[in-house]
Structures
1.
Amino acid sequence: MAHEPLHTMGQQHGRRSWAEPWKIKMVEPLAVTTRGQREAALAEAGYNTFLLHSEDVYIDLLTDSGTSAMSDRQWAGMMLGDEAYAGSRNFYHLEAAVQRFYGYRHLVPTHQGRGAEHLISRALIRPGDHVPGNMYFTTTRLHQELAGATFHDVIVDEAHDPESLHPFKGNVDLAKLERLVAEVGAEKVPYVSLAGTVNMAGGQPVSMANVRELRAWCEPRGIRVLLDATRMVENALFIQEREEGYAGRTIAEILLEFCSYTDGAWMSSKKDHLVNIGGWLAVNDREVFEELRNLVVVYEGLHTYGGMAGRDMEALAIGIEEAVRDDHVRSRVGQVRYLGELLEEWSIPIVRPIGGHAIFLDARRFYPHLAQDLFPAQTLAAELYLDSGIRSMERGIVSAGRDPVTGDHKRPKLELTRLTIPRRVYTQAHMDVVAESVKACFDARAAAKGLRMVHEPKYLRFFQARFEPIA
Ligand code: F0G
């Protein structure tokens, strides 16, 4: 078993390692570039890692979204696509998998997570509403705002402190929620937007006790609890490891219990579900489901494909089953931890505790001499690429965008550079190379000067913004 403590058998050797519960059947060659080539590529990309060509990248840690390696069973499923416009067999497999592992009654397929966010926001939010959530996610909050809501962060304070070792930094602070609802009125709060794990906080989990309490508080007030289930499988592992009473429960059991305290969920299957594209929305309420079915045919596709091909739905149905296996989740999060622990040994500042899907470098402590307006996390992503061709992502002031009312930069406390680990893609040796490159940038940190933004798109600016180095 993966993370079991030392047993007598291994003690004379002093260590017992764990390894991935799979072996490699097909490989994709990687290109190694020269420093000169990387300097040219980064300048061409406006110092934004989203604008690099993937061919110019060596180890790609931009995101864990849609970048997983599928299993042989999933690839076999791709050959069983029933590409009928309506009523594809693969849709019913997907529906059954979601009902079995997440427990919701009604399923609406979508092309990916933000498709589902769009539909649920339109269905439930009226202009002037307020949506509380455990920190924001970029696309989630934007869809809520575009539907007319004001978003309120009600996560525990510890989530904004990269050094706090709170075991459940994704938890909702019920006192903050209570204050908000007292101020605006429960009828103006269509739902609480609960994410497990919390991406922008560093992949931090929500405890079972917290979702149970949240449910008990919301139900009598007529406020729904809706779950962003994108990385909920990883959240379940943290509950198993850290929360009393769950050590003997499987990931699948924990997932089902957690979802039972919520009214529905949206999902970017490109993460937990080990597929390259796909997503869904699932609810228990029949009326809400009817409204979502009205909307899905306008924006995504018919209610039995929602923007996915039949083959994609088959690979997704199989991926859901593989995603909840305990050995898979342990090795997935274990690899993230392996990288994080190497960095901790070298005293490189990262968000702690180490989260589920990524290591988040704390750019404020990495570059204490750079003001937030010089985009320290964006600068660090650029320096890492220049050093070794490793691609990471900014999660700080650029990602936070501007306040829709004042037009000023939002200035998040967390100014982070994310090293996101795709599932089943890279080896431990790749993680060593990544750690050593981060160390090289850390040793050269005093020379970093920051960036200036020279092009700023209106929505989700981090994707396409352009920068220039400060001379
Ligand atoms: N919710 C969370 C928590 C996410 O991390 C994402 C995407 C979405 C919703 C939207 O899903 O991309 O399928 O439309 N996160 C990616 C990332 C892009 O890199 O973290 P999507």
2.
Amino acid sequence: MKIVFATNNAHKLREVQQTVGDKFEIVSLRECGVVEDIPENEPTLEGNALAKARYIYSRTGLSCFADDTGLEVDALGGEPGVRSARYATDGHDDEANKRLLLERMEGKENRGAQFRTAMALILDGEEYLFEGVVRGKILTKECGNGGFGYDPLFAPEGHSESFAEMSAEEKNAISHRGRAVRKLAEFLNNR
Ligand code: IMP
């Protein structure tokens, strides 16, 4: 059975296909003919994930899933959260986002934070939500060159190194997205 994942990122597609196994064929947005930008204007991660999945379902009629991720920092009341990509500017400027986060965290003793992924699935017209969370802390300076986004500033619980200092496999085994994808895969494979 074909199922659309709301991305064109080859790396994410391969990773999800490996986790889900061969019972489902994971198809990109482009492959199912959705080439326009999908609006992401909802106030929550769940809202955005569901809105994206509903958009694809209404355009294609195919079963599909979509994710949205945010970094939620305790001392900042959950910011940047749903605005993680556009924290400092309207564009996706990772460098500016990290700088702003460090600035807002200056002098804060509570460095607790979490990455949270909301995953929305529409399967045969029914809607489902899955969540993946990893707790950790915001470092006082950038560490490591791997990963993307806020990775150099986030050390997951039980680890002294940042996500940017881990291999892709190590990160995937504990990350928010890895957890959400494994829940989705388990659900699909138990159908
Ligand atoms: P998206 O929903 O996967 O597009 O993520 C939204 C934003 O959250 C990204 O632009 C990044 O700034 C941040 N983000 C999401 N996942 C990660 C991650 O695994 N590491 C670091 N930053 C992330």
